[in-house]
Amino acid sequence: MPPTVQDVADWWATAVSRVEPDVIELRGRPVQEIIGGMSFVAVIWLLLRGEPPTPAQEKLLEVALVSSVDHGPHAPSIAVARIAATCGIGLNNAVASAVNTLGDVHGGAGEQCMRMLAEVAARAETGEPVERAASSVVAKWRARSRYLPGYGHRFHTVDPRRDPLLRHVEEAVADGTVAGGYLRAAVAVEQILATGRARPVPINVDGCTAVIYGELGFAPPLARGLFVLSRSVGILAHAWEETGQGRRNKGPIPPSITPTYLPGSGHALET
């Protein structure tokens, strides 16, 4: 039997939006009520979760999104955006080029940290002391890689975003907005990493936002998706700024500096 019109309609069945002549609804809510009635952050929650957030949930999501918008041209995504903007392409292409660099290494730590903290929190929920759960999970993750997602920073001794973000989570726990399992797990991991070290390894912005997204009930892959939404703001701002500076074909280093030549090696220098 050939496909029917209904078969085609069902192929694209969605609960996210309804768009028909003279009708636009987002999760069943008329767009004319949403415009001016909900913040952008609340709409993000609505589309991802199906229901609008409470004011306290909206506030906590907002601080996480704000914290990750930019980290300067040292961040590969920002550098790529600025380079791409000088190559004769549009802003959308520059933004897309930059977003496409956000992978497991750059941009994925939040998702990875959220998965790690979820393991700690789940074990703690069974009655295991959170410190012991954290120690076991950290050992397992360290067996895979010497890098622990969400902790430490190559620039900051203490990430300046750590304290305000965790303070907002603590307030949300105190008023009953979130349960606090991810926060307790994150602090326990941080304490383990500080043991026996002259210089601690504090939680960074990826870890803090992982705590927030976990406390708010988002699935781990959305930690990366939400980071992409957040970082896109900085990407756009840098790409736009670069278009006004008059450079063409901007490379990663000034033309006066030439890369180190490694004759016959083909291997990069150790860093």
Automatic annotation (TrEMBL):
Family membership noted in the UniProt record: Belongs to the citrate synthase family.
The organism of origin for this protein: Phytohabitans aurantiacus
Keywords: Lyase, Transferase
A Pfam family this chain is assigned to: Citrate_synt
Start and end residues of each stretch annotated as Disordered: 244-271
Gene Ontology terms, MF aspect: lyase activity
Taxonomic lineage from the root: Bacteria, Bacillati, Actinomycetota, Actinomycetes, Micromonosporales
Source taxon at top rank: Bacteria
Gene3D superfamilies associated with the record: Citrate Synthase, domain 1, Cytochrome P450-Terp, domain 2
Signal sequence segment: none
Protein name (record): citrate synthase (unknown stereospecificity)
Coiled coil ranges: none
EC number of this enzyme: 2.3.3.16
Pathway(s): Carbohydrate metabolism; tricarboxylic acid cycle
